[in-house]
């Protein structure tokens, strides 16, 4: 799959691509198993595309000279990274600019890469965007086309300029190297004979009274008569609870972008939505993820981001030693659950109520993992970056582990994290119980969680399939 990408120089000077990338990911630890490769930021996570699929970018201009990079390690790192996404639909953006004779892998490496990237990696790759392709790479693609399946060939899209890429992906989430930006500007100037005019941004429009997407939780509460749980979240979760819990791969699949936009428009106009009309249980699943992703501020808030990144560190105080099998794992889980509860204490009570409702639903999904194959770990991989992201830019690949771990803990240990019996000062404390206690009370009262979230089940099927 990757061999076609490296076969042609991109028409840039060797000097430009020989300089290592500036601004290494500050969250990248030297203990990362592929630190020697990851430190170059050749491969990065770049949010989601218009279909809600995770986007991974590959930047040739960040590849150092061949003598400074072990290409076999690069291949292993590619597989290591994609292994986190191949179970879900995903998209790759390949920035071809910057590849030249000094950093281009050998032909034997290309052959090895082509053999190792088998159907496992190709199946759920839904789109491959080749940005700034050269004439030579187009010729090579035509030569290799007979050797590549027609189905895979339809996934490849050539993108001649970055403005075209914006039609398929969320422009503000893309981590585009400065070298690529400058090269694109040069191409645009060459084609137009003058610098491109600055784009005029239309004045922002006030949201509709019935708006559901892209507005704050407070706005939704005010426009829905004080209801804490947003209508989109309640309707999608209710429908999926009734008709989707046994659907294999729930939340992993994408849906038609035209269908998603049509449903968004109906919701924003205050019109009823009947998911039965669409005949696809994955449609409400995508709508739910889209709603979370388009909140102006993540459900877990910007303030909690740095705290969550520390979930894998030894921040909680040590507990007394335990005996017996699984004792160490038990202590570690207990400490992390306590850490989760401490972080959630800082959430606004409205955010806490919505989070509790959502996690209760996802916990119910994980309990049916024997049918839907979506245990708490799989769900965390899907929802982690839909619940929290940094205030500037997007989450890096190295941030995925703590973000997903935190989400997995919320789902797996839902009763312990959100259980009212553990709330600080919950018993008779009233408003003195802090935002957590007040959030739970408001959640149960306004969202009806006492009836909408089923009681916990014993750790049978869902946890055996982890």
TrEMBL record:
Query: What are the residue boundaries of the Rho-GAP domain, all occurrences included?
Result: 215-418
Q: Where is the composition biased (Pro residues)?
A: 194-208
One GO CC annotation, please?
Answer: cytoplasm
List, alphabetically, the SUPFAM superfamilies matched.
CRAL/TRIO domain (SSF52087), GTPase activation domain, GAP (SSF48350)
Chain residue ranges for the region called Disordered: 188-208, 425-466
Question: Which Gene Ontology terms cover its molecular function?
Answer: GTPase activator activity
Domain CRAL-TRIO residues, every copy: 33-188
Biological process (GO) annotations held by this record are:
negative regulation of endocytic recycling; positive regulation of ERK1 and ERK2 cascade; small GTPase-mediated signal transduction
Q: Entry's PANTHER family?
A: RHO GTPASE-ACTIVATING PROTEIN 68F, RHO GTPASE-ACTIVATING PROTEIN 8
This one is known as: Rho GTPase activating protein 8
The gene is ARHGAP8
